[in-house]
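Lab notebook: predicted structure, single chain.

Context: the supervisor wants predicted structures on file for every construct in the current expression panel, including those that have not yet been purified. This is the next one on the list. No modifications to the sequence; it matches the entry in the shared construct table.
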Amino acid sequence: MDPRPPATTAHQGHGDRPARPHSRGLRLAGAAVHAYTALGSVLALLFVLAALEGEVEAALWVGLAALFIDGTDGMLARRARVKETIPWFDGALLDNIVDYLTYVFAPIVLLWTTGALPHGPGGWVLAALPLLASSYQFCRVDAKTDDHTFLGFPSYWNVVAFYAVVLDLSQVAVAITLVVCSVLVFVPVRYLYPSRTEALWQLSMLLTAVWFVCYAVLVVQLPDPNPFVVVLSFAYVVYYLAFSGWLTARAAHRRRRAARAA
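Prediction complete. Output recorded below exactly as produced.
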């Protein structure tokens, strides 16, 4: 979000009268949305504490709550018009801080405490890769594109950790996944932004909701998840990757068409 206050001249009426200030209720709504986003930082702490105490299911439940907040706070922020009502507060920066804690740092702690990473220097290197790669990505100004997609692997380490636990993946499988996804952070492939990408928005949101339900069911079923529910949750992952490939191809086609027109 742009922390600079919007120019008032665009909202002035006849006779250069200043724009009417926003109501106190709307400003309070904006502040409440920012507080809602900030709650994710508390969930990150609870996530880490649960992981350190060996309470894997509790950590995954907290991770689901963090996913829900991140998936809904943007819509609430737009409805509350936070950029206009609280222009001096950078909500995008807050969102990035919270997302790094809940999507990157806490999940890597969970992978470490569950034994999904080898102990010793090799484990430290594997744990460092997502932390460093995502530090780079969260500082890129083009990490979220103008047409509402993610550029590069969108640091879904919480999803990686979730499947590592649910599928009881071996250390080798986890290591390969971490290395590949860390590299993909730097590859300019476009990824679906479920709550923002306009193309097939309703379908994406419906399938995302189904995946959330599958996530909850699988956590309840631990340590013996139902194979059907696992496959159903993976169907969303396949959709996500396939649609992301289509978004990447569409963007490349637009660039080629623009180059020919120039």
